[in-house]
Amino acid sequence: MAVVADAVAAAHTEEWGRIVATLIRVTGDWSLAEDCAQDAFATALERWPRDGIPPNPGGWLTIVAKNRAIDRLRRSATERSKLAEASRLAEADVMDELREPTRDDVPDDRLRLIFTCCHPALGLDSRVALTLRTVAGLSTPEIARAFLVTEPTMAQRLVRAKSKIRNAGIPYRVPEGHLLGERLPGVLAVLYLLFNEGYSASGGDSLLRADLTAEAIRLGRLLVQLMPDEPEAAGLLALMLLQHARRAARTDSAGDLVPLEDQNRGLWDSGMVAEGVDILRRALKRERLGRYQLQAVIAAQHATAPSLGETNFSELLHAWDELARLDASPVVALNRAIAFGMWKGPEAGLEAVDRVAGLDGYYLLPAARADFLRRLGRTADAAAAYREALALAPTEPERRYLARRLRECPAD
Amino acid sequence: MQYLFFIGTAPDSDIEPSDGPDKSETPDNWVEEMDRRGVRKFGNRLRPAEDATTVRKRGGEVLVTDGPFVEGKEYIAGIDVIECADLDEAIEIASKHPMAAYGLVEIRPFWPFE
User: Mind telling me how many Å the CA of A410 is from chain B's nearest CA?
Assistant: First the structure.
């Protein structure tokens, strides 16, 4: 029984997105596609213990899901007595397509599914939820828990997103030509947001949060596999791997944040670092630099340095400068200033941080100032800055970290 | 798919399409191009919001008020009925309208008869 349950779970991870994507392409009906995929997995749980695990679980599940779709469409066709000729013909086409055995030469439908789920005409919350539901196959309650909303709220969000796709005429396809260049960053942003939701543990069930990180990496791998010629997709995957490789050292046994300089680098996952560096190196060979590749270069500089002092800071700052050229946001400018301070010392760092404008209300600005002030021995100024940062910090681990630093600054 | 484009503007805006970098990008050019492509079914400019009249019927009584139904910084300066393949094509068409650069274009799908 356990073997069968494992096989079904593995098939779910591997095949869910593929089955749903195919059924959506053929029927154009998102809810039907999800329901039929769900039915197919339920049928597998029922039959595989009795009949044995089929040699090709994915093919078996696809056939069962397609047959279920045929049944459902046939039933709804007979329910509607006055079916227009045109839609009857369209339905006949759908039926033929559903009956056709799965061909191996069809380009992967999952890529269309990903681009449709991440369409900019959908709200960001909807894009993330829809990607998790239809591409990754997470259940609605799981997604609701991960994003700290009630199940009906999440169900409503998914229903609304699907009806907008249908009613507004969002196409089910991978954009071509220059539109691909416009749309790919949106897809990458959804995956990176997903990753950060898991990585930053900003609230909610921490176990589910870690799952989000794993899902984001899995989706990143899928995207790289489906779009091998897109260096930014590879750059994002490399970035996620290089950040994820440090997870064990980022918090201590009490769950408190450990800053980069104090992290035990022996806890970093060297296999994952090597994989990230390798993927990044191959992406960079294409010589189409982008913000994810540059962020991965930065992460790689840290991840491959034996200690903070032995970091290749000139390479690191070069990457930050390139990134700042592509992305003029003050957050990039602040992080560049922090890196500069790690290299040239707290005085230079403080000066660089103070030159960053446009970040009022962002906790990392006073936190960075406080850190440099503390290193300079200006404890009263540092304490004031830590207090300011503490009032703005969004998550509990960050507040605990800042409070601990504040306690280290003797009053006057 | 059939869409209604609301061409929106900001009344305070002192930017006129003719001030744009490319003087050939006028609404007339856009109309001509989209008519030629066969995607624009109908469209026109609208008189400003101050010429709008709003009608409601409440408790059997017809209430007529001066002005648009929502007071806002932006108002609808024109409409176009567009028929094209899907939302991506509609977005492409909307992005070419000069008012996309100086105001905004809201794309609304028609609710078809079942």
Answer: 53
